[in-house]
Structures are given as C-alpha cells and as structure tokens.
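Weekly sync notes, structure subgroup
Attendees: PM, AL, DS (notes)

Item 1: joint prediction request from the bench team. They want all two components modeled as one assembly rather than separately. Inputs as received:
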Amino acid sequence: MLPQDLRYTKEHEWVRIEGDLATVGITDFAAEQLGDVVFVELPEVGRTVAQSAAVGVIESVKAVSDLFAPVSGDVVATNTELATKPELLNSDPYGQGWMLRIRLADRTALDGLLDAAAYEALTRES
Amino acid sequence: MTAPGDRLGPTLFERSRPGRGGGKVPHPPKGALARIPASQLRADGPRLPEVSEPELTRHYVNLSRLNYSVDSGFYPLGSCTMKYNPKIDEWAARLNGFAALHPLAPDDLAQGTLQLLWELEQALAEIGGMQAVTLQPAAGAQGELTGILMTRAYHRSRGEVERTEVLVPDSAHGTNPATASMAGFKTVSIPSAADGGVDVEAFRAALGPRTAAVMITNPSTLGLFEARLGELLAAVHKVGALAYMDGANLNAIMGRFKPGEAGFDVMHFNVHKTFSTPHGGGGPGAGPVGVGEKLLPFLPSPRVLREPDGRFKLEAEGERATSIGRVRAFVGNTGVLVRAYAYIRAHGGSGLCEVSDDAVLAANYLKARLRDVLDVPFDRPCMHEFVASSATLKAQTGIRTLDVAKRLIDYGFHPPTIYFPLTVEEALLIEPTETESIETLDSFVTAIERIVEEAHSDPELLHSAPHNSPVRRLDETMAARQPNLRWQAMTGGQTPCPE
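Output from the run, pasted for the record:
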C-alpha cells in the first residue's frame, strides 16, 4: 500500500522529489491516527523554511498537530483546496491531499529522509 | 435547531411570540434619548425572544435537567479530578462578609477576607513544600504563565538573558508549551521513555546554558509517579535552570510528596481539581502559584501581609520593585478561594493525606479490575488515574474508544477522557477520585464489561450509541468543519410551537 517512490520522515510525512522540487504531505498512517482532519493551516508561499521547523498546523477531531518542514527551502506552492476540503488528507493523502511544495535549498538534507522500507518498519514499531 | 428524536425542546427564539413578555423595562427618562447622538441609536428593536416568565423558567429548568454532573453520577474524567464538591464550601463562599465585600474596601474593613487569603497561602505553601504562594492567577494556565514569568525575571535579574528554552515532555498538558511560548521562550519537546515516564537521558541531553526551565507534571498525565525525579531535578539545577511543577495531579500526592522539598522551584495548584472548587462553568477560577526561595522576590503584587500586631494588609503599590507586578485585578477571584479554604480546613492535614490515599487506592482498584477487560498499557501501580486502551478491542471488532465512551453514556456514566494522552493509541484516561464508593466503581466495571461483550455481539449498537441521551451521536467532524455558532431562523418565518 505504501508508495515505494516516496521518501518519508519520522513525523509521518511523505516527500516526493521531482528535480529540485519537493512535494510534501502526511502519510496514510498519520491520517488514520489523527482521525478526521477538520482544519489545515499552511505557510505562505514565498516563505523560506528550515528543515524540522514547524510550518503549519493540522487539526483533527482528536488533536492539533504541527506540520514540520521535511526539507529546507522556499515554499513555492500550497494546496489551497485544503482550506475548504481538509478531508482530502484522509481520503487521498498521497494525491489530492498534498500540502505544500518546497524548492530545495540543499539536496544533502534528502539523505536524512527514510525510504519506504525504513518508514514501514517505523510504523510497525509504533 | 432541534433534531428529530432529541429530547431538546424548542429554543427561546422558536417559542417567541410578538408582544409576549415578563417584567416591564422602564422607559428612559424624559429627554434621555435626545442626548444620544442619532448615529448611535439603533433603527429597529433588538430581536430578542419574547416569552413569558413561566416559559422562560421552564425552558431553563428543563434544560438543566438534561445536565450530567458529579452531583448526579460518576464522572471519571481523567486529568480533570471530578471529585464531589462538598456543599459546605458553597455555604462558606456565600457568607455575606465574603460575598458582599467590595473589592476596593479598605484593609480595615476586609480583615476577615485578608486573613483567609493569608491562611490559604500558608496552607498551600505547606502542602506544596513552598516558601510562599500567590493567589492572584485566575486559572491553572495563568498560574503557569505567572510561574514562568517569575522564572524569566529571575534569570534576567542575574543577567542570564541567553536562557531562551523551556523543556517540556511530550506527554505534558498542552498548556505547558503554550505557557513557554507566551512568555517568549522556545519550547523543546522531550519524548517520553518507553515506561511512560520522563526520559531522563533525553532531558540531560537537551539541558544546557540555554535552558531557562523544565516543566514537569508529577504524577505524569499517564498517572505515573516520576521515579527518577531526584536525578532529573539535580541535573536541572546543575545547569542553572529552574524546575516548574505542573500541579494538575496534586490530588494523588498530598501529604506524601511535597514538590518544594523534592527540589521544584515553582508550581501551580488547580483549586478546582484538588480542592474541590467548581470546574469551568462554575464561575471564575483560581490557579495559585507556590515559589521557593529563588523566586520569592518576584511574586506578583500586592501580596497579603501580616503585621506584627496580627492585623492584615495589602502590599502598597510599588512597594517591592522586583515584583513581576499584578497578574489579576484586586487579589484574585476570592469567591473560589473561600471554597478552597473551606475544603482544606474541613479536611485538615490528615484528612488531605487520606484524600490522596483514597484517590490512589480507587484508581488502582479500577485498574486491577479493568486489566482483564481492556488493555492497560502501563501495568504498574498508578497514582490517582491510569490509562486504558481499546487498541486490542479495535483490532478484534472495529470498535473504537469513541464508541465505548458514547455507549457508557447509555449506562448512565460520564465517559472518561478519551484520546489523551496522545502518546497512547485509543486511550481512555480514567480518574475515579476519592469520593466514589466501591459499589460505584464496581458498577462502572460491569458497564465496561457489558460494552466489550456488545462490541463482539452487536457492534452496530455501539457505532450508533448513545441511544438514551438527550441528543444522539453528534457529528463532531461536521461540527468542526462547518461550525454553526449562531441560531438563525431557518425559514425566516416562525417554527410552530410543538406544545
């Protein structure tokens, strides 16, 4: 089930690398744990974000969680559809539920991300 | 709007009929309206409901009958300490000398209240093992902020302005990181250890010259006593930081553990939990803060002082330059403090020990009985509360903690806290408190046992629960995604009164 072509973080986010662009979302596991997502706050386009910094907020019926930048760079796009349809995070986390796109400042940060096998092992532990 | 099948009657707006009313509102004195600028006068009347006094009274009395409260049944809401509030506290708070005292009354006319506040400070200081207490903060969260602002003032007074971080374990109440941020600090979240306790090694690694304070809830939000606290506090002090104790779970440890003696520099008390004052909705609250030697100079002003001749007075404005200043009007919310004082005096020292002993006993009894029914992730002696989980039940039947909680309503119980702490999957945080009898605890266990049976035999019954409550299962997701916060006539016309 877990897309094999994506990279992952311990904070249960996924990253799709295309050239120097990184598209970011939360994993199916995260969405399942959060329950129904009711509100999403995303950073402004143009903002420079540092890896691991809190850049947004995901609010579900159970909890409010931070969204962390998995890589450093400039935010070039955010998924504005989530403002009115936060449920996309639950229904299609790897597709229409994408959250933001970052232009990579530095590719070496990618080395710290998990591959699908490593992430799967992580979710089995928890 | 009222939904079909619900026991809620029509709203006052739906009951409204033009021209119906109760008391007469006096007309403004002659010429008064003319003195108000025309631009400030409204063109049409306020659209208030027009109902008679008996209709109004019945409306609210009938609504109040739908309430569930600790006066009507068991309320094991973990982390909230929903103990029974003795009625004598209410009697004390209503005494005219306290209730009718003007907040600006001179000290000479307020000796009784000042003495009560002074004695309450002494009592709380003794319970907390602290040097002194301020009663000003209006709630636990404001108490936290007061404590951290004093911590900031302490570091600044020593020129240590580079201390910008506050360490908080990931199992903490959300107010802890919020407090640190409000006071201008950066919150550093420290993961819990596998046994649910504080990860002392992770704390050690994060401690340093930038650490202003650590905030620890002990017992933790999992209802566990921090076994390695001494070691942790020694490490905190070694780097020159201060230790804040969130007193949310004080009900477990009164008379058995004094935070100040253990090395905490500052703590707050939740009088609505430990000292049985009303919870939210019961009026203004209070979150007193106790401090050790280091923070004494920074206590909010004005403090209540006792003169050598035994009379009491309030500190004068500006009398103590090191104070962080006022955090609340006057001396705080005295009504609720009178209740806390009455509770403490009615119990006395040995009585308060017994309160904590019985709270811990009740929680351990419930935990032992529920161990065979639900998961109990941290299966060691707990304090005043414990975490259970429906993770296995969910895997077997698809029934979630939410369904179990909703079904408990049908059995006449207020559900425990659910999905908190966040570190436990499908969590139920159960806190019986000392005021419940063994029969009540047993009947709660029986209800959970039946619900687990139903989860296997008739899961749909649980998915659609509650069935016997004033309203059925609420769509919390829809309510959060499309909040409808104001009553509006749905059609513009009147909804017919069903009665």
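Discussion: The beta strands of chain A are 7-8, 13-18, 21-26, 37-41, 48-49, 54-60, 64-68, 73-78, 100-104.
Action: AL to compare against the crosslinking data before next sync.
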